[in-house]
Amino acid sequence: MCEEFAAVLRGWPVREIERDVLTPVGRMDAMRKRLAAVRAATAAIRPALVHFYEALDQGQKVRFAGMS
Q: Does the predicted TM-score (pTM) go above 0.70?
């Protein structure tokens, strides 16, 4: 029974990838979901980053801007 379960689990990621990514529509949908996740993450950290940046003095802001 454990061997059957392990075999199913080994095949699961492949089946999901094939279902979601191997078609052009699936690839576009996957990319759309990734971009939405990046947008949400950026929105979540933006207030903290703005607060951090505002706490810097002018010299620190110049060095910070040079890091990007």
A: no
